[in-house]
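Researcher: Good morning. I'm working through a list of sequences from a screen, and I'd like to move beyond sequence-only analysis. For each chain I'm collecting a predicted structure so we can compare shapes side by side. This is the next one on the list. No need for commentary yet; just the structure.
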Amino acid sequence: MEQHSSWTEKENGLYKKFQFKDFVETFGFMTQVALLAEKAGHHPTWKNTYNTLEIWLITHDADHQITKKDRELAERIDDLL
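Model: Good morning. Structure tokens for this chain:
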């Protein structure tokens, strides 16, 4: 897996773009992220095209601002790599 960037503040949230070997590897990572997000009760906005995944973490119930929940989930996602 090749990372294109670190988490950045974008559109009132944390954003990161990931690139993987192929769709299967990407989908496997998305599945792991989904399990983390469900456990945390904090669900990402994301976009997947073949081997590329973009994730936005935004706390909608905090007036669409970046919160501790976003930073903690971003850290847990990075730990999967």
